């Protein structure tokens, strides 16, 4: 069994996943827009260019997402964080800095009783991240 996080955005899925692919050194394996689906004739025009599904592969693991196609107001992502466990302090710092740019640092990257570095942030797209480095293998 594998557990794969699936994120919901309000029109920023493509921009978010372009950033995540760069920062996490992954590859976007799929990106489909609503206009490419058989049901697109039933969709309101403003939603057609939104992302129906995007899949990012990072070290054999998948992070997936889509943009909402609902006319209801988007309430944002709540109640979940993505944890990245990295193997070096330098990698933890690089990722933390990149994801926190234009975002909000909740806990600065620092040593804790369980890790040589840990920090939390919400990126510019509203996704909560926990960066954890238990020991420095560098």
From TrEMBL:
Q: Which residues cross the membrane?
A: none
User: Boundaries of each PhnB-like domain copy?
Assistant: 2-131
Instruction: Write the protein's name.
Output: PhnB-like domain-containing protein
| Organism for this UniProt entry | Pseudomonas marincola
- The organism's taxonomic lineage, starting at the top: Bacteria, Pseudomonadati, Pseudomonadota, Gammaproteobacteria, Pseudomonadales
């Amino acid at each position: 069994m594998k557990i794969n996080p699936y994120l919901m955005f309000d029109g920023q899925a493509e921009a978010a996943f372009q950033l995540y692919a760069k920062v996490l050194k992954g590859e976007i394996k799929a990106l489909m827009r609503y206009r490419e689906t058989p049901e697109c004739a039933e969709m309101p025009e403003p939603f057609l260019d939104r992302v129906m599904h995007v899949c990012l592969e990072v070290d054999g693991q998948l992070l997936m997402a889509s943009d909402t196609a609902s006319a209801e107001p988007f309430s944002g992502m709540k109640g979940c964080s993505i944890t990245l466990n990295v193997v070096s302090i330098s990698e933890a710092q690089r990722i933390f800095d990149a994801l926190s740019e234009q975002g909000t640092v909740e806990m600065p990257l620092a040593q804790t009783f369980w890790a040589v570095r840990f920090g939390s942030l919400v990126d510019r797209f509203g996704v909560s991240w926990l960066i954890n480095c238990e020991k420095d293998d560098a």
